[in-house]
């Protein structure tokens, strides 16, 4: 099995997500996502009632209930995603819950600009699916207020020999499902750009949450 990764173009990725929008929950099982992973990741952001938070690549909205709970009715949750299929499901969730303070936008994350400075930005299982992730990260930092929190939560290869052994299977699986490039190490991109960088691993290092705060000035 191949261990090379060739980036896909944005339109191909968007169309893939339109097609798999109904499969996100089965993929969570297939990829052994820890049950409390989303809740834990959102807790690590350190949101307070009234905060403004953006999820980049919010998909079908699986993190939105935790984000909405954390900021409360006085806060604001923004979600951006370029897949209409994914976003339609998130929109349905917002309508069902009558969340008037959750605003979803269909756009490429590199082009999105939140309407106000943000207290926090989270990449929810999305960083590795974006070939232009460095540009999206720069844009995310730009939208944050100084001292605001940037969090990346995702799956990764486990450390050591285990990671090397599963790499070919991981590449095959990603190419056939969510198109997340397992060679990308987002925590190495984030760490030099923020203050107070921290990283926490789950399930033998196959999931992680990393975070830091935007520097002043
Ligand atoms: C694996 S899904 C994760 C969805 C959701 N955050 C979750 O945790 O279930 C990745 C999401 O990122 C979105 N995405 C990928 N590239 C994007 C881009 N360039 N701009 C906006 N959204 C993008 C996809 O459409 C998809 O919904």
From TrEMBL:
Keywords: Methyltransferase, Transferase. Residues 53-148 form the Methyltransferase domain. GO terms for biological process: methylation. CDD domains: AdoMet_MTases. Gene3D superfamilies: Vaccinia Virus protein VP39 (3.40.50.150). It holds the Pfam family Methyltransf_25. One of its GO terms (molecular function) is methyltransferase activity. The keyword Acetylation does not apply. InterPro entries: Methyltransf_25, SAM-dependent_MTases_sf. SUPFAM superfamilies: S-adenosyl-L-methionine-dependent methyltransferases. This is Demethylmenaquinone methyltransferase. It comes from Rhodoplanes serenus. The gene is menG_1.
